[in-house]
Every structure is written in structure tokens, then in C-alpha cells.
Here is the input.
Amino acid sequence: MKKYNIAIVGATGMVGRKFLQVLEERQLPVDKYYLFASARSAGKVVPFMGKNYTVEELNETCFDGKNIHIALFSAGASVSKKYAPIAAAKGIVVIDNSSAWRMEPDVPLVVPEVNPQDIMKHKGIIANPNCSTIQAVVALKPLYDHYGIKRIVYSTYQAVSGAGLDGYMDLERGIRGENPQKFPYPIFGNVIPHIDVFLENGYTKEEMKMIEETKKILGDSSLKITATTVRVPVFHGHSESINVELKKSFELEELKNVLAKSPGLIVVDDTDNNRYPMAIDAEDKDDVFVGRIRRDESVENGVNLWVVADNIRKGAATNTVQIAEKLISLWEGR
Ligand code: A2P
Here is the structure.
């Protein structure tokens, strides 16, 4: 089998480091890896795959002469806006974890369990969805296929690691009794109904990302969706309450079976024994966990779900690496 060269942009960040861990675990057919970050980290030595890698500065010529096939980006939206087209113009397929390209019509927005068919529509850039959207659509896709979906109400409980290293450190600072530097208010002992910036319609950008990205990934602009996204004092793992109004009627047991058979999704739903998905159990796992599955008795064909995943793994690094794996297998004609 052919071997590929992969670049990691933002290799020193929260998600970048997880890219390295996931790549070590999954062993893609790779010849050479190249690690990039800002000038601040250039020259830093990072142990990876049993070797020492030196981080290089990301700049306009850093990809030249390296025969890179795929670049995994997680260095923020402004870095992606500038450098993803530079990499793509050199024939590299960029898989971008930022929000920079997600809603561009020419850029596939991919969760491999949900819409792998969109990968080959790329024109040099493939976008990795927002962390909270990824775990939601893994749980919603089987319901969408079996019953149709009319309306979705998202309420999220999101970990501080979703805001990068600075967010993570804000919770540590709070525990030590220090003031926050990343969030507008202390996160320790608090719940902040504000993720990303506020928009004119009163929603936050994070909420609109969930709404728009869900429609794009499921390929259905007619879906009715609303969202409230909230930061909670948890280090790892996003939790979500998802209220869904289905188009067709359902039997609860059958619906649970549909979820249980779906790829990447694990049903943890045994309330007799107090078993339900929790952030502490999802930490460092690649799957999405769903539980508290119950009928919403206030509407026709309504169901409530509680969905939990590791936001840095399935919500970011794992999903990006899975896209790379799928891309390689499509290149290999499999
Ligand atoms: P660096 O560590 O050199 O600042 P996080 O989301 O955890 O804050 O990580 C952000 C990642 O993006 C880090 O690897 C960071 O590198 C990288 N990064 C931030 N700004 C730039 C930039 N202008 N050019 C290249 N990499 C950047």
C-alpha cells in the first residue's frame, strides 16, 4: 500500500496534541509526519511515534518540497483562513478543525459515520464540524434515516477544554481561587450560558454553528432547530440534552435498538441501575454515548436523548483523523 505524508498544523495546541495521540493509536499508512505551530513553538521537540519531532514555524513556504498529501489543521479560524488555501493550492488536502470553512458551499463538512459520501466532493479543503454538532449528529442520523426529523431542540453542557488550553487553565485557575483569563466570568462553581460571540439575533455563534452545521451534515435545510449552548465547570466531555420531534411514530424499544445498531454510538440506558452517559466515563473514548432515552409526552412523536462524548476526541481530533483514514481508503479505491 502507498504511504502518505501528513502535516499537523497547530501541533502544540489542545487538539493538535490529541491529533498526535490518536494518530499513534490508529497507525495510518504514513511515511513522514511534519509538525507546525507558531513562531513561538518553532524548534520545540515533541516526542511522537517513538521519535523526536521538531516543530516548524507555519509560514507561506513551510509546505514546499515535502510532498505532503494531507494536512490536519487546528490552529484557529484566522490561521486556517490564511493557510488552508495556501496548502490546498500546493495539492495538499486540508482537513480543518476550525470554523473558518465549514459553511462554504464547496467545502464538505464531514462526520464519517453520517456523510462519508461528501468527502470526495472536496476541492482541497474538508471541514471538521463543531464539537457539539459532531456528537449530536452521530446520535441523530439513525433517527433521521428511520423516522425522519421535524424539529430539534439542543441544550448543551460543554467542557472548558472546548475553549483550548486557555479555557482549560481558567478552570484550574478558578479552583486555585484565581481570576479567569479566558472566560468573561469565573467558570469554577458557575455555569455560563455564553459560548463564542453574541450575534444580532440574540443567539451565540456556537448556537448558530450547531443549527447550521446540523442542516448541512444531514443535507436537509428544512429542519427546524434551536439551541442553547452552555459552558460548565467540566474539564473533558460535552453533554447534550437533545429533544427531537420525529416525522413518524415509533416504539421506544425499537428506537433504542436503532440507536444501538448505529456506528460510533453506544447506548448506556439502564436507569434501574443508575446507568446513563456521563462526561467522566466518556473521557478519552472515541465513541458517542446516548442514554436517558424517553418519550417526550408533550408532543406527537417526540423523544428526549442525553448525548455525551469526549469533545477533544470524537468532537475534534478523532473525527479529523477518521476523515483522513476514509480519504486514504477512498484514494486506495476501497
Ligand atoms: P503555539 O503553541 O505556537 O502558540 P489551542 O487551541 O490549544 O490554544 O492551540 C492553538 C494551536 O494553534 C497551537 O498549536 C498554536 O501554536 C497554534 N497557533 C496559534 N496561532 C498560530 C499562528 N499564527 N501560526 C501557527 N500556529 C498558530
Q: What stands out?
A: DSSP finds eight helices and 14 strands in the chain.
